[in-house]
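Troubleshooting: if your tokenizer reports a length mismatch, compare against these two reference records.
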Amino acid sequence: MTNNHESRTPSERPAPSATGAATEPQITLRSPAELADALPYMLGFHPTDSLVMVAVHGEGGRFGGRLRVGIPTAPSEWEDTARQVADCLIRGSERRGGKPDGIVVFLCQEPRGEESGQRVMTRLRPLAQRIRLACGALDVPVLEALCISAGRFWSYVCPDARCCPAEGTTLAAGTSVLAAAATFAGLRVRGSLKEIERRLAPLRGAFAGEMERALDRAAAALVPKILDGATREEVGAETIALAGSLMRRMTLAPPAEGGPRADDWDDALLTHDEAAALILGLQDREIRDVAAEWMEGEEAAPALRLWRALARRCVGAYGEHAAAPLTLAGWVSWSTGDEPTARIALGLALRADAEYRFALLLHHACNEGIDPEGLRQCLREERSRREPRRGRPKAGTRPPGRRDRATTRRESRRTARSDQ
């Protein structure tokens, strides 16, 4: 990109601070390299195989709404995709307060087989062009369009080989001012999109076959319960008691490290039959809503581990059943401040069941930047009504179940201190 262009280019426009508050000091990104490096910090993860669009507002170039979708494999779908994403981002920005003055586009995809990064850039050029045309048709220009592949980036907008050479420019990860500010603020990039999705994806191989048979057994066992007159309350009580027991088990057996090895650890803590019974129980909306109350304090971490483990157990013919644990995983992530993971989990829930209403509502609210505290308060009140003698436990208490005397004494001391 030429740096002596008369009008201000998007690379010279200030991006919002890490908190996104318009009244706080702003960070200015001055080159395509800084735009490319800042992308994972804007999203919270590395967007592999993704088309990302960011709205730009005002003379100062404030970054606004963002949109990420997977890049369609078939080029025949590119034109429709370009129209849809342009309309979605621009119309959405208008509803939230104003039409964008420009769009910044990122196409992120790693090479396939013997393909080079430059070849990826060339192959995706028609998609970039269709996006530029679709945005232009809505009277919003694409100010910059970057392809990021194989550790390099290319500009589809800048014709100057002196700053944007044909072979691309090496991506200096973590060197932009936004990266530095995000690190200082304690924000982090949570791996790549594929890595996050992999932690929620169904298990495979012989393990999956055993799990599917366990789900078959659990489904067959549920029918006689219903025929024998078992009520929703009875099934729900069994499901919640089992979930509480498994959360306590996870609390007492934390993994030694994070990432995939932690998932292997959690998978080993659950038997197939336990996971199957809980997955089927969570298909009931009221039972799922009770489970959603484990969203904060010491309950949140074991709940998230459990919901992730259950999502991985929804294998074979039970893939659609993953919508419930995936939505719960997304809700806990959002409630505890991890919006990037929340969006991914909720998106996967809708991929499992496009009509799953709880996921639809949470996905919309999270994308609109709504504060989750309103929903947290509703769930706290519902829990207090359902458990009048116990009342709503304070954030930081254990999952439901018998507690030892030492735990009770500790909580009493915390309550006494908080009342002083």
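Reference record two:
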Amino acid sequence: MRIIVIVGIVLSALFAVYKWRYKLLNMILAVSVLRKLGVMLTMNMPTIKEKLFSNLFKNPLNGVDSQKN
């Protein structure tokens, strides 16, 4: 019986976090220390770092020679 109650509480908590995930994320990112920690953690993940940098530093002309008019 106790297992059913624990599972119910965990599922309810997960549902609440999912429902208000953007509000929770905004509250967490409003704290500068947590925001800096989040950026440091995500920049240590190679796949996220590669995707971010490839989008930031790609050539906007897509192969067109920028010297010609």
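Descriptive notes for reference record two:
- The mean pLDDT is 86.
- The chain is about 70% helix and 0% strand.
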